[in-house]
Structure formats: structure tokens, C-alpha cells
């Protein structure tokens, strides 16, 4: 009998790949494994020689950056004792390495074309031991904590002398890349008393302590350069942050590379060509622009990261039934790694079945997973709602879906209006109408699914989601009696406090819910909190204390009001972890969350138990 089976700890068996880099005959990436015993993740940089097939390893390392001459590797190593990050440089021939810089906060590292200097972008804060102070908004940011007067720092580091040759500061949320011997700096544009975050940028060229403004109040930012041309991602000007991001080149003149109809993801410039990812109806594909844009790697998959050099692309590909592995594309697609193959040979995975349906005036994509059932057996259903609303479901590996399918549940998920992967009009239709037509899309999808699968039990339908999916779970149990159980994670219950409390509320909520929050009726009309009396289904609220995107007040308010009304509600507050704690929390944290997730639906949709004894559950 296999020692590997689907449960709350199966995630710890997998290898996780990230941050692929390619230069010449070398490919580097980060391999992360879960250490359950010590409750931590262990990251190793793997360097593969494409000519010999040899592999080299650097332990306790991340952010691999191969030098342009293909001879050196810069990387980051965490010094937990000193609470610092260290930049190391290794010789790729011998892998002997030296530390070239220690700093408290490092966000990015990039080689100059001379293969000697590094551009190091980090940040500094006041760091008073007793209090934080700010005179700008936001005061905090998810996964970053209190900003405490934060400034972005830029250092030019000479790796030979190990000295900082030049340094300067810019406002928080700035970023930069090399452009020859010049640095292109993206700075959030200010409008009145606050920065126009996520919407408008001012772009500068910086060299030898002098700067030149290239663009003012544009909705794109510089993402790559070959020393002559700058690659820009975004738009010339956005009305809404939820609009699609397109691509442009600038060499003294602004030239469009891609302007729709779909959105774009990461993008790289290589020998005058542009490679970029495109979300498309549940897939993420790779496109190439060489005068015209065309897809080059297309399939039922998500490309989860890539790098390119001289037409050779190193990329990570993930499917609905397999975690990401490393591939190489040089005209043909070749798989280089198979870390998780032996694990998946021991596990049954379930391929989602696509279906498409009409909801009001739109065609909507949906998928469902059918568990193993006897001919006359009926099974409960769990409806998953993605984050966003400009998120997207489709052909990628979702751990909870495979876990619940293995437990005998139908799993249903759709891309309602507002989702990414479709035209811009589709994405914008949810603005100021969140919870209205998008919720109808989900409900219509459920009905269409039930017609397709007579073994799905409409009397045992649960719903769950994180972030916007958590909001939609809260909304669903107040708007419909169809749902017999719900798990809401890091969701919204009251849009007004979200506007005032969330790190992005001042920008995002006024777009999604509407302007003038103190006067706009939408902030009450679209808030689940004010419909709490309608709730009949038992609800488990899961939230993380350090979530500054959808802060804890959102679940805590809803929980208190529900309990005050005598409703069946429970709340699990994880003491650590940001908005993405469900996949980035420590291993024991994640295992406990998965255990709560499985047991709540087991007890409410299969065993029909009253109560939810968490001590008994965690003991088991």
C-alpha cells in the first residue's frame, strides 16, 4: 500500500519550482521543499547545464541571476540570526561563492551588461522599536506590514570591490531596471494628497546622480530593457485599474507591441523580440512579437514563469493535474524536470471537465470534477469561487479541488463576468455591480452543471472561496438557500470598512464598489453583513491576523453579527500570515487549515453533524 495519499499533508510531498532563468547553456531555478518536522520551507537553487545535462545545487538560496557573460550567478541567502538578506556571487565553473553585500531589505537584483555591477533595489523604514509613524497612505501593505515612512532604495554594487558605487532613494512602491548604464525608475505618480498607486506612473532615467523624466502620469511601467529599447507594460492612460495591460516599446518613440483583445502577464525583451504570457479562457499561453504578435506555446496549461535569452525560453508549465515542471523551448518544447512525477504516480488525480453556458447576455466558461462514484450513488458538491474579481480559474493545479474530489465530492468552478482571460469589456462588467450579475453567473453555472450530472446532489451544495471568493461565499449564503454549508476565507463582509481599512481600499474599492464611499448606497447594498438575517447555512470563517488586503475586521464583524442572531457560525483566526496565507503559510499552519477545510464539509455535507469541535478535529 502506498504511503502517499490525499490528506491535509499531501502538499508537503511535492517539490515546488520557481523563478526560472536562462543564459547561454545554463538554466537556473529555485527548488522548494517542505520540511514538516521543522515547520519551514527549504529552498535550493538548481543550475542545469543544457549541453552536458549536469546539475549543480546551492542550498539556502533564492533569486538566481545569471550574469550576461554566463560565468557568474548572483543569489540571495537569508541570515535568520541577523535578520538580514545577503547577496552572494558564485563562479558557475566551480560554484565557489563569496558574500558581496548584507542588507536588511532587498527586493530585486539585476546584473549590468558588464557582468560586474548589480542593481540592488530594496527599502528602508524608520524602524523605531516602540512605534510606527507615517504621513502618507497606505500605512500598511499586505505581506509587507507597516510601511513606517518607507522609501525605495537603489544601490549600484560593484561585485569585485564589494562596494556600493552609487545610491539614491525614491518614494515607496518605486522600482527600477538597467537600461545600458542608465537606470529606468518607475515612481508612483502623485495626485493631490495621495499617490495614484497601481494606476499612474512617472518614469525617469537616472545616471550619475542626474535624472531625466521620460513620461509623466502614464499607466504603464518599464519592465525590461536591452540597453537600446525599453519594454513597457500597461496602457498609455487607464480609467480603471481593472483594464487590461498591454505592451509597448520605447526607443525615443513609443511603439505598440500588443493592444488587446486579451490581457498580458509577464513580458521579456530578447534581440528586439518580445515574449509575453497571455491569460486566455482558463489557460495561460506564451506569445511572441517579432513585428506581429502570435502564440507560440498554447495548451490546456498555465505558464507560471519564464525567461528568455537568444530565442531560448526556460519556462514552468502547470496543468490541472500536475504541478509545474521546467521546460525548454527553442522551436520545440522539451520537458527538463520531473520532480513530482513519482509522487503523482501514487496519487489519483482528477481531470476537470469543461462546459460552457449562457448567463444573461454572456457566454461563461465552467469546469467540474467528478469523483469516483457507484452507478446509483449521489455525491455532494462544492462550488469554488476564485479571487479578484479579476482572477481566473482553469487549467492549473488547485490542491483543495483535487483533495475534495478524492474525498468523494463534485467540484464546480466557473469564470463569471469580471474574470481575467477574456476581453476587457468582460472584465469591467463587474465594476460597481459586485455580487449582482457575477453572482447570477455562478448560480446559472450551478444549474447547468446539475443538468449535466444527475448524480450531483442539489440538496448538499457547499460554497467556498478566498478574498473575492470569500466575499462571494458570504454573499451567497445571504442571497440563496441552495447552499447548505460555506467556508469563507479572508473575504469581505462590509465594503465601507474595507475601503477605509484595506491597504488598497482607497484605490480599489472606489473602482469596484463606487466613488464617494461615505454617501454611496452601494457600500451598504453590496455588503453581506446587512443581509445576515437571511443566513441558514452553517458558515466557517477562516482569516489571517496579518491580512492587510482584506483585514480581519471583515470576518470578525460577520461572525459576531451572525452569532448574535443565533446563526451557526465559526471563526478560525490564524495568528500569522498575510492575505495569501492559504498557500504561503508555514507547513503546520497550512496542514491545520486543510484539516479544518475538509472536516467542515465532511461534517456538514455528509455526516449532518451539529457543532464543530475543533479540539477533537485537530487531535485526529
TrEMBL record:
Q: Name one GO biological process term.
A: proteolysis
Q: Does the keyword Transferase apply?
A: no
Which domain of life, per UniProt? Archaea
Q: Which UniProt keywords apply?
A: Hydrolase
Molecular function GO labels: serine-type endopeptidase activity
Domain Peptidase S9 prolyl oligopeptidase catalytic: where?
397-607
Show the PANTHER family listed in the entry.
DIPEPTIDYL PEPTIDASE FAMILY MEMBER 6, SERINE PEPTIDASE S9 FAMILY MEMBER
Query: What protein name applies here?
Result: Peptidase S9
Species for this entry: Thermococcus profundus
**Organismal lineage:** Archaea, Methanobacteriati, Methanobacteriota, Thermococci, Thermococcales
